[in-house]
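User: Here's a chain of 429 residues. Predict its fold as tokens.
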Amino acid sequence: MKPVLATCFAVGLIVVAGCTTAVVKEEKFVLNDIEKYYKAAPEGVKTRWISSENKKGEKGRGGMTNKGAKGDAFSMIGPGDTLVIFDQRGPGIITKMWVANSFGWTQENRRKVSIHMYWDGATKPAVSAPFTDFFGIGLGLMRPFENVFFSMPEGRSFNCAVPMPFRKSGKIEIVNESDKFLMFYYKINMVRVPELDDDTMYFHAFWNRDTTTARGVDYAILPRVQGRGRYLGTNIGVIGNERYRGTWFGEGEVKIYLDGDRELPTLVGTGTEDYIGTGWGQGEYVNKIQGSTVSDRTHDIYTFYRFHTYDPVYFHRDCKVTIQQIGNSQKANIIRMNEEGADITPVWSYVEADGYDAAKRYLDMDDPPAVTDEEFPGGTSTNFYRSDDVSATAYFYLDKPSSDLPPLPPLELRIKDIKEKVYTRLGEM
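Assistant: Prediction complete.
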């Protein structure tokens, strides 16, 4: 008699004829199971909410103070203090974060508060960013918006729906470097699971700022990171240099260097606004995976985002993401800016009347014309390298709980001139 194999997928029970012992396999839980609303959870999968009303997310121990009435809706964070808002043992997956807090009322404090996330006992955080910048809008600004991963309902609360798995442990800290006591509301939703798939990666976020980008040098959204992973996307904030006031900042192309790329990237876009799905400049709009939450042409202040969901960016060895620092204007403006000390060198022009030869690539020319030369095209579109104040949060997954990227820059860099450059100009309260 031949052995007969019977499999019960619901409980993972394998029975082989002729054997008296049944082998029960633990069922792995994958994130896609959450979206199967009709499917019952396997044994061992448990829903937990962590908040000030149940700091440890313990079963049957929520809302214990004030005789079960509202008692600990928020936590206070003193000046210079660190508050641990999440400290759980794994395996588990954070599925949603919600926060509302008092530092959002005072714009000067927004970049003085930072968020840090640690996975599996690592001493270096995988996520380290100014709090408001992490939650989807750059420059410490708050605006109503919603996309696939982040939202700010009515511009006064913070929501994140990026899945964050961990195997052994997860910890989230809030650091208050302001001189104020902060009222901090939060709720972190998670599921405990028996086991994660072997190829489950860890969520990371990296923030940096360059107050004066070098002309001709691409700004690094994500410096080269080693390992296997997936670049998830970014939100970027640009404060235009006064010297270029009234010109367009966004001709720079996004470049993604994959798996050993050095001099040239594998992936390259065609312009800043093109990368976020629009064209010919950018106004204000919000889509699921792309948007421009602030577009102030009067003061040259922009915040925008792009996420790679159905167009994934995978890497197996390393990844680096940059954006060129290139603007656009016409001959008369470039001459004027040079006379005022901007020192602008054109890199490319478009001359429609020249048909197939419309693109003038000055950097490829042995003897390119000076902008003041008569033969230099006037009244047309000319790109030039520029230097602006640029900051960005890069989001990605990696096959390890920490990376070799630089730490969060010091407070002085995070807040340098931000009040004068942004909040005062935009009339932020």
